[in-house]
Amino acid sequence: MTVSNEGFNKHWPEMKFSKNMLQDALIKHVLGLTNYHMADIGEVFEVTVNLKHGNEENWINSWSTMANRLQKKAQNYEAKDKKINAASAYLRASTYWRVSLMYFSKTEDDRMKDYCLASQNCYDKALDLSDYPGTAIQIPYEDTTLPGHYFTAPSAG
Length: 157
Prior knowledge:
Blueprint: H1 21-32, H2 41-49, H3 56-79, H4 83-100, H5 110-129, E1 134-141, E2 144-151
Antiparallel strand pairs: 1-2
């Protein structure tokens, strides 16, 4: 069977979500996470239409607003013992907290640490509430520990 490109004049990377090349690439990255339920296309589009292209402050505020909204939704689901909904919302919140920092250069800004921790905490909550075979761990490193996750294959026994 021969596959034809007839009818297609362009390839999807030509679609631009931002005039800013890095923001455009990051939005496409986040859209790629939808297959893994780490993002929702409607949520990504909602953030994207509110972006001021090339504006770091707007980027972090837009993504962190969505992350915060989902984290609160996850907490409400968890309080009602709706574990699947809570895990899903926590997972997406974790993604958006992390994405908020991907186009942010102010490493001394307190939000850098706060949003990293929020992302990690949401991810850990998602693992705790789901049946995904992952566990949060602490990896010894010099005089401290580094956060990590240990995943086992379901068939590993």
